[in-house]
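User: Good morning. I'm curious how pyridoxal-5'-phosphate would be positioned relative to this chain. Could you predict the structure with it bound?
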Amino acid sequence: MPHAGGPHRPARRPRTADLRDVVALDPVFARPGEATELPRFRLPDQPSLPETAYQIVHDEAMLDGNARLNLATFVGTWMDDHANRLMVEAADKNVIDKDEYPQTAAVEERCWRMLAHLWHAPDVAHATGTSTAGSSEACMLGGLALKRRWVEARRAAGKPADRPNLVLSSAVQVCWEKFCNYFDVEPRYVPLTEEHKVLDGHDLEKYVDENTIGVVAIMGVTYTGMYEPVAEIAAALDRIQAATGLDVKIHVDGASGAMVAPFVQPDLAWDFRVERVASINTSGHKYGLVYPGLGWVVWRDADALPESLVFRVSYLGGDMPTFALNFSRPGAPVLLQYYQFLRLGVEGYRAVQRTSHDVARYLADGVARIGAFELWNDGSDIPVFAWRLAADHTDAGAGWTLYDLSERLRTHGWLVPAYPMPDDLTDVTVQRVVVRNGLSRDLAGAFLADLEAEVRFLDALKTPMPSAGERSAFHH
Ligand SMILES: Cc1ncc(COP(=O)(O)O)c(C=O)c1O
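Assistant: Good morning! Here's the predicted structure, ligand included:
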């Protein structure tokens, strides 16, 4: 029989007090949990010290790409120190607890009313809106309001309401495909072509009929950053109404552009100045300049958001109307949005968005000058632009593709996706850069230098780049 302390006796697990001693003695990466392995796909049996768990999570997150070099995302990756402080202070607030956090609720309403004003709602007092988790939820709510409004009008007229359709460009963001799928609406995609790079109202009468709940116009198409001309789309719908009597409304998906156009193109009428626009969404976490987790949707007036969709939660002894897919959601991003609104004001937002614009134009010029590319657009709508390979690099078989270039740029830390364009243009592959607050002119210069060096490297190859099939892993 082995004696006490002998080789068969299981090692005694140190109690927490002992663990603290061990931590005090051991260097960080020699602690239990750091120096040994914790299970990854089931809960560990025992707790770890907070220092150990923190270090493990921190280190794992460090392996992600560097958010600031992520030129693929539209989502905010930089906020100032005051915002960072607020984020930590407000991390425990649940936006749905209106009664418990009445100030956050009040701030939320102030924010969407500010947006209603910014987007020229004819009467801000009669506009209505809400924060959301992002533009996806905001688009779903906008789509649901269009659908319910159509259903109620059809029922009131004694007509069938079982085959709703929505007209949109084939370049819509995936959230609209989800909306149509989840809520049983037929999507009617208007394909893009070289002549019609965005939905611009041409041929609209071929898609719109009595079952059309609305038309989506995108301010800042995800694939390219280009604006869809809302006023032209509305004019096409006016003509359709004159010919058929159908009164079809527009939802503007301004995920990015609704926080760029008011500052950079203030004279462009894309918002509630266009009478057919019933609702507008934006992502607070894109050009609203807040960290991920925030969207907004505003309806022109109560008519545009049927009362039958509204639920009430308790608020200050009474109740408050809400319209949302989620119940609980972080309140901190709402407070951060308010911080940005106060901090920047119109002039501040203009300065930030103009700077991003200047950087985008500088980059687009630089990309065009390399010679291997042809710009698809130049970043003059939202500060986003895309390019394809120049004819001599595709037809003459340069031996490399934009997917190869994307991979090469990754070795420098830059994330710049390459992907095919949507239906009817799928043979065109583009690469896109999204310029956001935080991509300074200096960083942009470093990016251009890396891009040029990689093009030189790829052009100098004696044999074509090996390919494992050119499938883009990028999702819009
Ligand atoms: C035009 C457009 N609509 C909707 C979305 C979805 O936005 P979110 O990521 O905020 O849900 C995006 C995201 O890129 C977008 O570009």
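The longest strand covers residues 212-218. Residues 74, 134-136, 139, 173, 175, 218, 220, 222, 253, 255-256, 283, 295 surround pyridoxal-5'-phosphate (CB under 6 Å).
Let me know if you'd like a different ligand tried.
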